[in-house]
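Q: Joint fold for the lines below.
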Amino acid sequence: GNSVTQMEGPVTLSEEAFLTINCTYTATGYPSLFWYVQYPGEGLQLLLKATKADDKGSNKGFEATYRKETTSFHLEKGSVQVSDSAVYFCALSQIQGAQKLVFGQGTRLTINP
Amino acid sequence: GAVVSQHPSWVICKSGTSVKIECRSLDFQATTMFWYRQFPKQSLMLMATSNEGSKATYEQGVEKDKFLINHASLTLSTLTVTSAHPEDSSFYICSAVVPWRNTEAFFGQGTRLTVV
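A: Joint structure:
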């Protein structure tokens, strides 16, 4: 079946550090890939997405590239801020669009000033 | 963006009682909503797909008689945990996809259920 594996957290970085959160997936065909973020006390919000191989999703300084050859969708940011502290979820959808999402286990990120 | 509101944010109930969680789409109509469950330090797992005007579709291993889903209108889906037990304690989250923008799911803020 479909599955998503994220690097285990928690991850703690200093402000302005480079961030990578690894995500790999198992799926048949060509799923859509997503990163969701959950800030403290809030619901999940879409951070970025990619719907086909080699697509790059980007938002708020975060980027992730859909790599079919390595079945990966790693999240990166060049310089993190304290406000980026949150839980990040990698997810895929086998159905067109964002329906019936399969999530990774989430990675808690803490940025220290 | 579209707003999905979930209520209550947290609830504590006694074993054997039932608890209802509401999921509302505030500024759009959602023919389909989804219910997820998140165990501590684990991923969100899809429980069921809620379809307006028809029966919900449950994922394998989810007890439909335990988790009753009703989607009576285009803006409201409810999840009722019946005869709750401590093992039902979890974080429950709903989502909806805007029909004309189905590349993004919008999530409620979640409900923390504690059964004592």
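Q: Anything notable?
A: Chain A touches chain B at residues 4, 32, 36, 41-46, 49, 51, 89, 96-106 (CB under 8 Å). DSSP finds no helices and twelve strands in chain A.
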